[in-house]
Amino acid sequence: MNLESIFYxxxxxxxxxxxxxxIKIGLKTLSGVYYLFIQIRFLLYRLKIFKEKRLDAxxxxxxxxxxxxxxxxxxxxxxxxxxxxxxxxxxILSRGYKGNLKGKMALVSDGEQIFLKPNQCGDEAxxxxxxxxxxxxxxxxxxxxxxxRYALDKFKVDTLILDDGFQHLKLFRNLDIVLINSSNxxxxxxxxxxxxLREPIKNLRRxxxxxxxxxxxxxxxxxxxxxxxxxGKDQLICKSIHRPVSFIDLRNKTKHGLALIKDKEVRAFSSxxxxxxxxxxxxxLGAKKVVSWRFPDHYFYKQKDIEKIITNFKETxxxxxxxxxxxxxxxxxxxxxxxIKLYYLKIILELISGQDEFIKIxxxxxK
Length: 367
What we know:
Elements: H1 3-11, H2 21-46, E1 58-64, H3 72-85, E2 90-94, E3 106-109, H4 118-121, H5 123-131, E4 138-140, H6 144-155, E5 159-163, E6 175-181, E7 209-213, H7 223-229, E8 236-249, E9 255-256, E10 265-270, H8 275-284, E11 289-294, H9 303-315, E12 320-324, H10 325-328, E13 342-353, H11 355-365
């Protein structure tokens, strides 16, 4: 187990050991320092010492207040499709997290052709470029205002979607959509690096729409409703699920029904912020048994990782190997062509409550 995996387990309180107590105390101290930093930053923006910039386009932010696992990419795809149907000219602005490309900005896709690989632009930006409707460019860069100006000048867009933009205070947004993972909303309620919170929970008040992702339909209680009402701000709260659609063969791209893994010995692997939801989904689809390998979020696989997975699959007599779409896109050049077939699970985000109100807000904010 590498240091990143241990750190992940510590900040999620998945690893219990007295020997880790000094580490947890140290991380808690660093969380205090981090809290002061972000509070000072917010204050500087409120006092107009740091000024937000505006672009001549509608700017919609999709973000969260935790580290990964909320399903931002799925919602960005959904919004892009909605706006496309309305005849809007859209561009996606992403940070390009975990990509190794240097420079202030880079064009991942012009809406027709993809120019970068996952390790250059980051797996999420690449996944967006592969799945967006034709004509929607994807641009990466830490400075979204700079990227946005490029999108306006080169592609003449009228709508910009910020992927992971809730903390990007530098750019004015017409609408802030904040996603919350219903299965693990705020982790252990500690700020990073002791926990998974990127900012205090109370800062959800800055959001215009809150979307609870990966919602369990069988859950009757909704603790978020009362929490948000107590803030005194009239925010729309929507519920959504990640619905599995099909399994796709990595090599020939053929689609297979969800019954592919029914009563099968499944070997699954992923590099997600929330791997448990993916694994539970495979169990719900009827797998006889799911044995999983978990890699750090946004992990870029090495050939030895693939070899270990295939060797284990053969030795344990597994029947099918499954991964996520985001992971599969990073493996197209690595997975052996003449060996075990690899399938990935295609999923979409589906709103199960608040969709009509959500559409109205989108339209009103963008008039």
